[in-house]
Each structure stands twice: as C-alpha cells, then as structure tokens.
Amino acid sequence: MTDFFAGIAPVAYEGTESGNELAYRHYDPNATIGGKRLEDHLRFSVAWWHSFAWQGGDPFGGQTLQRPWFGDTLELAKMKADAAFELFAILGQPYFAFHDADIRPEGADLAENTRNLEEMVDHIGQKMQAGGPRLLWGTANLFSHRRYMAGAATNPDPEVFAFAAATVKTCIDATHSLGGENYVLWGGREGYETLLNTDLARERAQAGRFLAMVVEYAEKIGFKGQILIEPKPQEPTKHQYDYDVATVYGFLKEFGLEDVVKMNIEQGHAILAGHSFEHELALAGALGILGSIDMNRNDYQSGWDTDQFPNNVPEVALAYYEVLKAGGFTTGGTNFDSRLRRQSLDPVDLVAAHVGAMDVCAAGLKAAHAMLEDGTLEAMRAERYAAWDDPAARAMLSSDLEEIAARVAAEGINPAPRSGRQERLENIVNRFVS
C-alpha cells in the first residue's frame, strides 16, 4: 500500500444532477444499453505509461511531476504498481494496459530486463488475483531507448532487430501470463528521417517478417488474444510504415496477415495523419480489422501528439457510432492513452481526469446508440445509394465500358445531381449530442 491517493474515496455513479467532481454523472457501469451493460460496451482501460510513468516533460521542458516511485529499481517499480492498483480501485474500471518499460526498471542487458519483467509480472499477477482490473493488452517499448533511434524491426543493424525480437517475445510471454486479451505493436520509430540513408524495400520487408514472427510465436504458445497494430503517423519520424488504417491494411495484405491482425486506433494519431477519428474507425470497420481504441485528443492548435483526455461529447459520439456499427468491441476496449497536463501536479488531478473522460465516453456511447436505434442516419444513407439496388445498375459492375456506353446512348441517360444533404445530417446528429 501507498498513501499517494490517501483520502480519495472510490468513485460512484451519482447521476447527471450531481455536482461532485469525483462522481460519475453518465457512467453507470451496470446500466443496460441495447441489452448490454455499459461497462461491457466501453471496456475502459487505464494506461500505465501516461498515468504512472510519465514525468511531465514535453519538447521544450523537462520533468514537472513528482512521484515517489520514479527511479530504476524493482522496489520503486513495485511501489508504482501498488499505486496503480490503488487508482484502479478508486476508478473501478475493468482493464489496464502497459509497455514492458512502464512496469519494470531498465536493466544492463536483455537478461536483466527479462528478470525484472518476470518479477513485476509476478507482483502484478498477485495484485490481480486479489481483485481489480484485467489486462486489456501488453506491448513492448521499442522506441524510447537510444538503441532504437533508427527503429526496431526496421533498424539497419541486425543486432537491434534481434534485441527487439527477443524483447517482444518476453512481452508476449508477460501478456499471456497475465491473461491479456490483446497484444499491441506500434512503431514509434519504424520509419525514416531522410531517404539518403534509407532502403525502403529492405526495411518494409523486415517489418513484415517481424510481424509474422509475432503471430507465429503467439500461436505457438497458445496465446488466445488478438494481435493488434496501432497506426502511428509521422511523429517523430518523417515517414512511418504504419501511417494510418489504409496504409496498415495494405501492409497486412502484402504479407498475408490481414485475416489475423487487427487495429488499435488512436484518436490523436488519426488527427496527425490528417483524418478524423471516425474516419479511421469507419475504414477499419469496413475492412473488418477494427480491434480496439486508444481514446484521447490533440490540441488542434498544436502540430504534435498532445495526448489529452477526451472532453468533446460530439466527437466521441461519432467515434462510438462507428464502433457500434462495426459490432462493438470483442477483445478490444477504450484505453485512455491520455496524460495530465504538465501543470496538473496533484493526485486528485489524475483521478478527476479519468472520471471526466469516462463520463464523456459514456455520454458519447449513449448518444451513438440512440442514433443507431433511431435509424434516421442509416435510412438516409441507404436512400442515397438505393438506385444501386436496381438490377441494371448492379450489372454495370460486371460489365465493361463499351456496354455501359451503349446503354447510356440507348436509354438517353443524362443524370441530374442530387443533394448530399450534409447540413441536414449534421443537424440530426446534434439532436442527440446537444
């Protein structure tokens, strides 16, 4: 036990009339929405790295947060784990997620890293058995250490590739041991800063083989969880091999992995790629590869990944609309890949940030479900494409240009444009989120 969160009681649902900042106003985990508990719809997860490992630095300044567990010893790592489970008990969320480097101190070599990781897995496993959340997913940090400055799987040095592969093996083992429901890979530095020293074809092939090895090993040890890739555009490198959903899907198709690997999609990364979050979710849903989400937001006046807690119900509602349309989460969930602002120093700030974010997500999911139940948006979408249900229209897709041209001439086809009705659709959405 620690006293970091001393005096902060477990958060309870008090309803929308509550003025208590440490109460859920929208998130009632046992409320039933469409025959499913709200907790089971949202499957909230706390991110170990931002909540307990981040020290408050940014590109222009160093550490601002003071935490008693900061340091590179097993004793401090266990204190960090104890504090994490105290926060979990306060929030009552069903899941958490971690990188290996978040939960274990950095060792002198792989062997020491592995020993440290195994000892921390034992410690965390004991705390899980005593009650508390489950592991949504584990992953390996293959980007922070200087050895990965030129990438991990795509590194020009085969010894770095080997070290990364061995590290991922230990992380899959840890995730499997703790009953993780997914394993995530994201390429923080899998890209290039200049083409002048980069062999694109070689690096792409290395990344593809690395991912295939992960799939093969997971199958070999009987890991039943879902393997996920998290698209990561441009930051910090100029080019990324996992830029967005479309890029990753092409990558999976190239290496024959599109049927076994799905996506963990982050709101902030979608924005950096020049997309909306709902676009990336809709595309992943259409391709059948939507697995899980990292829920956060960026500051739209900044050009980098600020990882702020979500606070915009309309944005969140559109995201969950796509999640629900795709069938909802199975092994995936809503992981708060979000961190406090570097001026938010107090323990209560961390609790309040999660409470507010969970409420925003609950309100957004309720609105998304109501929109789907109402059916107006989908009916208007279906009406827009209804002409394609005509047999003559469908026949064009198996026809050729000459046949289609002959039909246009014979029937005197000269179509008039039809309204896309965008403003009316936006007004419909606003009925549910205002």
From TrEMBL:
<dbReference type="InterPro" id="IPR036237">
    <property type="entry name" value="Xyl_isomerase-like_sf"/>
</dbReference>
<feature type="binding site">
    <location>
        <position position="305"/>
    </location>
    <ligand>
        <name>Mg(2+) 2</name>
    </ligand>
</feature>
<feature type="binding site">
    <location>
        <position position="307"/>
    </location>
    <ligand>
        <name>Mg(2+) 2</name>
    </ligand>
</feature>
<dbReference type="InterPro" id="IPR013022">
    <property type="entry name" value="Xyl_isomerase-like_TIM-brl"/>
</dbReference>
<feature type="binding site">
    <location>
        <position position="269"/>
    </location>
    <ligand>
        <name>Mg(2+) 2</name>
    </ligand>
</feature>
<dbReference type="Pfam" id="PF01261">
    <property type="entry name" value="AP_endonuc_2"/>
</dbReference>
<keyword id="KW-0479">Metal-binding</keyword>
<feature type="domain" description="Xylose isomerase-like TIM barrel">
    <location>
        <begin position="141"/>
        <end position="276"/>
    </location>
</feature>
<comment type="similarity">
    <text>Belongs to the xylose isomerase family.</text>
</comment>
<feature type="binding site">
    <location>
        <position position="266"/>
    </location>
    <ligand>
        <name>Mg(2+) 1</name>
    </ligand>
</feature>
<protein>
    <recommendedName>
        <fullName>Xylose isomerase</fullName>
        <ecNumber>5.3.1.5</ecNumber>
    </recommendedName>
</protein>
<keyword id="KW-0859">Xylose metabolism</keyword>
<dbReference type="GO" id="GO:0042732">
    <property type="term" value="P:D-xylose metabolic process"/>
</dbReference>
<dbReference type="GO" id="GO:0009045">
    <property type="term" value="F:xylose isomerase activity"/>
</dbReference>
<dbReference type="InterPro" id="IPR001998">
    <property type="entry name" value="Xylose_isomerase"/>
</dbReference>
<feature type="binding site">
    <location>
        <position position="230"/>
    </location>
    <ligand>
        <name>Mg(2+) 1</name>
    </ligand>
</feature>
<feature type="binding site">
    <location>
        <position position="337"/>
    </location>
    <ligand>
        <name>Mg(2+) 1</name>
    </ligand>
</feature>
<feature type="binding site">
    <location>
        <position position="294"/>
    </location>
    <ligand>
        <name>Mg(2+) 1</name>
    </ligand>
</feature>
<dbReference type="GO" id="GO:0005737">
    <property type="term" value="C:cytoplasm"/>
</dbReference>
<comment type="subunit">
    <text>Homotetramer.</text>
</comment>
<dbReference type="InterPro" id="IPR013452">
    <property type="entry name" value="Xylose_isom_bac"/>
</dbReference>
<keyword id="KW-0460">Magnesium</keyword>
<dbReference type="GO" id="GO:0000287">
    <property type="term" value="F:magnesium ion binding"/>
</dbReference>
<feature type="binding site">
    <location>
        <position position="266"/>
    </location>
    <ligand>
        <name>Mg(2+) 2</name>
    </ligand>
</feature>
<feature type="active site">
    <location>
        <position position="102"/>
    </location>
</feature>
<keyword id="KW-0119">Carbohydrate metabolism</keyword>
<keyword id="KW-0413">Isomerase</keyword>
<feature type="active site">
    <location>
        <position position="99"/>
    </location>
</feature>
<keyword id="KW-0963">Cytoplasm</keyword>
